[in-house]
Amino acid sequence: MKLNKSFPVTGCQKLIKVDNERKLRTFYEKHMATEVSIASLSEEWKGYVVQISSGNDKQGFPMKQGVLTHGRVCLLLSKGHSCYRPRRTGERKRKSVRGCIVDANLSVLNLVIVKKKKGEKDIPGLTDTTVPRRLGPKRASRTQKLFNLSKEDDVRQYVVRKPLNKEDKKPRTKAPKIQHLVTPHVLQHKWRIALKKQGTKKNKEEASSQRCRDGKLLAKRVKEAKEKRQEQIDKRCRLSSLRASTSKSESRKQNKSLRDSGVWPSIVLGGFIRKCLCALSQNNSGFRMAKATKKSQDPSTDIKPTTSSAKSKKAKIRREPKAGICSKVDGASTSRNSGKVQKTYKKDKKTPPRNTKRKASENIKLPTKKTKRANEKALFGHYHRLMEEMTSTETEPDQSSIGSSSASMSDLESQ
After folding, report:
1. Cβ 264 vs Cβ 258: under 8 Å
2. Of 366, 376, 361, which Cα lies nearest the Cα of 412?
3. pLDDT tens column, 298-326
4. Bias regions of kind Polar residues — which residues (predicted)?
5. Please, which residues bridge with residue 164 across strands?
6. How confident is the model at residue 353 (pLDDT cuts 50, 70, 90)?
7. If residue 239 lies in a helix (H) or strand (E), which one and from where to where?
């Protein structure tokens, strides 16, 4: 097995081949990133402590941190994983890698010297010589740390430049672009960005407050509109009730004025007379109906039957059966023409004549035509006399006269 030892302080590394497996047993069953003392290799390595960084097996597959096995596994790797470099953006690939446990099947084991005790011998080609760095630090803070600079110092003067010397040409140097370099321009840029952020924040707050104010104002306006509408509705209701009350009061005043002027009693009497006339007309119609019913009930009076009653009588008359044609069974005659007779009988049974159902009370004494005409004449005469008296006197009639007139009216009504 080969041991590749490196010393980061000097920037040197050295490859040693070890054939004795007893010397290598100290590394077996150790995981990656573990620190191991290598005093068992030889006396020159006494006092040195190394860390297992990585390794490759005999087929060339690298060790991967986190895979806790001795053998190989096939993993799907993408950007950011060790042991794989993607060729395209977002590319993934399944690769075979070895576990992180050290075994005898490894061909090369990479070790990094971590500690070195003072007073120990230097290893030739590893700790006694230093290799200068090809490139200097690119970050400003690391340059400050390398040269022990303060924040006020200008880092650009201490940037490590790379010489580019060519034959028959003027010598020139190349410097990297310093990252995270703090300059007045950068500070101004930061200040402007901060000012812009502050302005946007302020605008957002103002906009939110304005929206809140607008919402409150809108709610206030809506509330005012509702209140105004409600006031209008209440006003209309008040006006309508006021109109109703005024109309009632006006009608009362008008009635009072009519009473004072003497027209009101005549209006009352006219209404009373109209009622009496209506009652008389109703009595007259009742008289006609009663007369018709009396005539229908009286057997002495010969009333000619209508067409419908005549038909019904004809249907009710039973025809005598002829000899040999019909026979009598249980009081019911059956013949060829009996079906028609039965049909007419059934039809007439459903709709009997109207006069048979009507019944008039015999005890009611109804007025005759002469008495009716006399009553009407008396009413009209009394009304005209009253009107003449009122027009002649033009004063309110006495209560006694109104009482007498009402008594006469009641007498007429009873007649």
Report:
1. yes
2. 376
3. 444 444 444 444 444 444 444 544 444 44
4. 298-307
5. 172
6. low
7. helix 184-261
